[in-house]
Task: inverse folding
């Protein structure tokens, strides 16, 4: 009986030991596997991060190039728009200036015509009025001078760019194509003709 009891105790101890081993071994394997998996995950994560950074850099460079191209296009379009606006404003200013100058020139035409037909027998009071109008005439001419507007020369040869021929006449005193007389003054500023001079031309 004692021997049986010893065997039973021995079996009990072995069973107890086996139970402990079975309980402990899965924990150790799981830990090792977790460590290996964790290392693999870290390596894969680092690789993904490296690839991701390179891809992001490439995308950032591409986006930067596209933004630069868009900016250059916008800058060129704005420069063209600004140039067109400046040209349009200059044209408007020139048109307004020409309109004002044409009004001044028309007033001078009327005064020139009036002074050409003044009677010889003027008394003192009328002469005072005439001098007043001559003062106005000088002021109008000063406006033209300030704007660099000058009368067109009508002495010499006819120039279709500067003169407007009202008639062509035979003349013993002038060669063919020469201007005989000026009928209305013409004006120019620089090389731009505001109004051609009306003339009679020899043929």
Result:
């Amino acid at each position: 009986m004692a021997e049986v009891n010893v065997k039973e105790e021995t079996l009990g101890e072995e069973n107890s030991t086996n139970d402990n081993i079975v309980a402990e071994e899965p924990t150790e394997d799981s830990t090792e596997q977790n460590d290996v998996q964790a290392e693999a995950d870290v390596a894969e994560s680092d690789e993904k991060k490296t690839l991701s950074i390179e891809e992001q850099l490439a995308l950032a460079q591409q986006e930067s190039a596209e933004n630069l191209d868009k900016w250059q296009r916008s800058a060129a379009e704005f420069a063209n728009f600004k140039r067109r606006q400046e040209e349009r404003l200059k044209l408007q200013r020139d048109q307004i200036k020409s309109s004002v100058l044409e009004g001044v020139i028309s007033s001078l035409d009327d005064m020139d015509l009036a002074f050409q037909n003044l009677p010889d027998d003027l008394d003192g009071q009328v002469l005072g009025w005439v001098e007043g109008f001559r003062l106005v005439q000088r002021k109008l001419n000063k406006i033209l001078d300030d704007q660099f507007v000058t009368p067109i020369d009508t002495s010499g040869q006819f120039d279709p760019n500067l003169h407007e021929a009202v008639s062509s006449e035979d003349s013993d005193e002038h060669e063919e194509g020469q201007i005989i007389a000026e009928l209305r003054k013409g004006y120019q500023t620089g090389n731009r003709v505001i109004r051609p001079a009306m003339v009679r031309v020899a043929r």
Remarks:
- The longest strand covers residues 163-169.
